[in-house]
Amino acid sequence: MAALDIIWKLLALIGSVGLFLYGMKFMSESLQRAAGNNMRRILSVMSANPARGIFSGFFLTSLIQFSSATVVLTISLVNVGLITLYQSVGIIIGANIGTTVKAWFISMLGFRYDFNMILLPLIAVALPLLFAGRNKYRYWGEFILGFALIFIGFNFMKESLPVLDQDSAVLQYLAGFSDMGFVSVLVFVLFGLVIAVILQSSSAGMALVFVMVSNHWLSFEGAAAMILGENLGTTLVPLVASLVGNKDARRAAMIHVLFNISGIMLALLLFNPFIGLAAWFTEMSIGKSPAADVQAIPFALAFVHTAFNVGTAVVLAGFVPQIVRISGFMVSAKKTAADSGTYLDDKIISTPELQLLQAGKEVTAFGSTLISMFGKIPVLFNQKDREIFEQMLEDILSDELKINEIEASIRRSLTRLSQGEMSVDGSRQISALLKIIDDLESIGDVCTNMAKVIRRKNSDQAWFSPEVRQIMFEMFDLDRRALHIMVQNLGTGFKYMDIREAREIEETLNDKRDVFRADFESKLKNQEYPVKMGVYFNELLALSEKLGDYCINVSEALARLKL
Q1: Which phi and psi (to 5°) does residue 245 adopt?
Q2: What is the mean predicted confidence (pLDDT) over 211-235?
Q3: Which of 174, 246, 406, 413 matches a 20 to 30 Å C-alpha distance to 15?
Q4: Run of H or E including 553
Q5: Distance between CA 436 and CA 70 in Å, rounded?
Q6: What confidence tens digit (pLDDT) does each residue in 383-416 have?
Q7: Residue 344 phi/psi, 5° resolution?
Q8: How far apart are CA 500 and CA 416, in angstroms?
């Protein structure tokens, strides 16, 4: 029966911690959805200098109380190029400070007041918002509900841990780690690290430590050491998420780790004075000492958490360039798929808006790949060495396979993104991008077909006259300009643009095709050109004009968004 009681209590504890974590995740994600593109814009603007970056990281994390979410969002911004690696440092520092707010909230309200009195009214406020017609109201309702779930989980957590007497086996076990001097501190730091790795939330880990302290499971010193370890444990999620990002994203995650490790080393060197300062501040503030009154320990631990993160930020702020350089040494500069800008992976992208932005950048990179592919066509057309010609033809055919893979990869990502919750503008952008990648893939097909026509022309010894060759080079030049303007328009994102130049080139291609074709057919009738040459010339002329059609389709799809 005792064993069943222990299992029941353990499951209750796991469930209450799970409810606490779910409330944090629910609140964080709903806020990100409510803010939408504004969150991305605010962070990118407010990270312009270190002070703004620290404030924006602090403000955002104070709201969502999930520093890992803020850091992952920051890494995402670095990954898509919205902020630089140096700009990310301020946000990461601010996120570390912002996560301390909940510690104060729990220590001041979670133990002193009956929070159940306002939990049901909070849910009552959230309920009508959850069923509102507009998504934005629904997201704010979810935010309020998530906040309520956090404290419901915290209350269950308090009830699931029993108060232990001095002779309990648990206390005796923990006491065995408490009499080893500085080694005891390191052991409890490790305990905190393990808890944070398991929970992946310093706020949830701290709430658990608060409950353990209030139920006489831990001493003040052991709890303070555990909180230091939890600060390091929460760096794991951003670090793992960054592994699929580019090198700067991985370096941003490493900076987060380096900051927290450096802070822990500093705190451990000054552990006793640090604890003494926390005890003094607590006694001066609330008139109780954590050494004598267990009810004062949560307040003292909130101070420890804040002093650790603020102190680390103050001490290390002057060493940001050195830390950034160290992250560069620790993270290889070797390019990955994420660095090449050709494959999407949504593991690092933390919001639908950022996923969509990343997709737009991938599509732009797709267009740039087509410029490189098309650049080989005029060279192939003019190539007389058979061995070099065959090698170039093989390269173009290989390019087509790569382009098909890129198109399929982006299409899968966009399709997956469209299945989630998106705004009306976001849905329109996805539809436009799906149409655009279809046109881009068609441009790759046109380039491949041009190469095959040139190969058949050479095999058939249908040699072009200097005049006809000049016509084709003129068409190739117009195609090249059309491609460059198309990629330039793609690079503007989803902003409204003037595409008159793109239309002018497309119209010029149409006019040139008609003029050249009419002139050529006239000369063909007069037997100035052989019929065999006319077949290949018309094919290449038609393909050249077709490439221009696909280019203008892309620019028009962007212009129709009018965002």
Answers
A1: -95, 180
A2: 78
A3: 174
A4: helix 531-561
A5: 32
A6: 888 889 999 999 999 999 999 988 888 888 888 8
A7: -95, 140
A8: 34
Which of 548, 524, 493, 96 minimizes the C-alpha distance to 316? Answer: 96
Tokens read off for 275: 């604890």
**C-alpha gyration radius of the chain:** 31
Interhelix angle 247-269/297-316, nearest 10 degrees: 120
Q: How far apart are the first and last CA of the chain?
A: 66
Q: Quote the Cα angle for 16-21-25, to 5°.
A: 150
Residue 45: CB atoms within 10 Å: 12
CA atoms 275, 218, 282, 97: torsion sign: positive
Cβ neighbours around 459 below 10 Å, total: 8
Would you state the structure tokens that stand for residue 186, as one six-digit string? Answer: 């390191």
One-letter amino acid identity for 262?
S
Q: Which of 12, 371, 366 is nearest to 162 (CA)?
A: 12
How far, in Å, CA of 150 to CA of 102, rounded?
Answer: 10
| Amino acid identity, position 257 | V
CB of 123 within 8 A of CB of 148?
A: yes
Separation CA 485–CA 444 (nearest Å): 17
- CA-based diameter of the chain, in Å? 112
Q: Give the C-alpha distances (Å, rounded to integers) separating 242 from 190, 200, 276, 440, 487.
A: 24, 15, 38, 29, 28
The alpha carbon of 400 is separated from its chain's Cα centroid by a whole number of angstroms, namely: 29
What is the per-residue pLDDT across 514-546, written as a single tens digit (0 to 9) for each? 887 777 777 767 776 677 777 888 888 899 989
Q: Which of 433, 435, 413 lies closest to 425 in space, CA to CA?
A: 433
Give the C-alpha separation, 192 to 44, whole Å.
33
8 Å CB contact between 556 and 499: yes
CA separation for the pair 361, 359 (Å, rounded) = 5
**Residue-range domain boundaries for the chain:** 2-337, 351-561
The amino acid at 493 = G
Which among 17, 88, 16, 81 is positioned nearest to 49, based on CA atoms?
88
284 exposure class (CB count in 10 Å sphere: 0-12, 13-18, 19+): exposed
The one-letter code for the residue type at 15 is: G
Tokens matching residue 517? 């074709």
286-345 residue pLDDT tens? 888 777 777 788 888 888 888 888 888 888 877 778 888 888 888 765 555 444 444 455
356 φ/ψ angles, rounded to the nearest 5 degrees: -65, -40
- Type of residue numbered 282: T
d(CA 122, CA 145) in angstroms, rounded, equals: 7
CB 427 within 8 A of CB 439: no
| Pair of tokens at residue 190 | 């490790």
Strands (E) located in 266-359: none
**Rounded Cα–Cα distance for residues 204 and 118 (Å):** 21
**Would you say 86 and 52 are in contact if contact means Cβ atoms under 8 Å apart?**
no
Q: Which residues contact 419 (CB under 8 A, 6 or more apart)?
A: none
Q: What is the dihedral of CA 294, 295, 297, 301, to 10 degrees?
A: 150
CATH class of 351-561: mainly alpha
